[in-house]
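Fold Annotation — chain and its backbone
Next Lines — sequence and tokenised fold

***
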Amino acid sequence: MSITEETTIETTEETAIEITEKIEITIEPKFDKWKQNAITVAGGNGQGQELNQLYDPGGVFIDQKKNIFIADFNNHRIVEWKYNAKEGLIIAGGNEQGNRMDQLDRPTDVIVDQQTHLIIIADWGNRRVIQWLNQKQQILIDNIGCFGLAMDKHGFLYVSDTVKNEVRRWKMGKYNNEGVVVAGGNDRGNRLNQLSSPIFIFVDEDQSVYVSDMHNYRVMKWKNHAEEGTIVAGGRLNQLGESQGVIIDDLGQIYVADFYNHRVMRWCEGKEEGETVVGGNGKGDQSNQLDSPGDLSFDDEGNLYVVDGRNHRIQKFEVTS
């Protein structure tokens, strides 16, 4: 709450109540609810390899201009859909499935450095993390069961490994080592220091790593330097039908794509149950339905983007004003 120099406040009980109410209003969640009918912002023209189509899209990245970068899994390419575009542009791969430097094999995730236009790709089928810059390629990390990617504000790259059941991080530009394990790494399992098929990941301001622990049907939070994680979503009977994309908002609320229940759920840390925020209207292709949702993202206005995998489209749920 800001007070101008001209404003004077008497310390009466009534004024105190009014000030408290104003303060409470200012700390309300920035984004709370979304329109339940989504807008298709990429794909949505059936399964295929045309520029206006997607085929089992994986990870998604939204830049500051609301351009959408998509790991187009079964088309073996990364496509960029400009804001309000009717079709995408191939920016990496797209040269058939393969392991040449100019090819990709079922990419699962992508992140983009918006200053340098550097594209970093989890090239899952080739077991490598590869970067593309101006159509020049370089392998950053090889022989890794890479699936999810994240980058923090300190210049660290995080990669989930579904084979070793762990998440490691590397300093950007320094990949000539094995990295540092920041989650899991204690064989496959369901103990608090273990993971089972970690896929999408999110890293917050404190370098805490949130991991979609797919085959444990939960989301784990590993604080920086922690020896084990805590369960922050799912983990109980019938709560999640397989966790996929995970993102965190400014209040620390956890959003997770519930793959088999065709919905996106929100958990407040410490709560035992989540709530449905979009989807949850049965499997389908209507604007209020999802079919096997995967990755999630917010733009800077709080609109929620959902990779609607089996509908081969990206759905945008606009935040209600």
Notes: The radius of gyration is 21 Å.
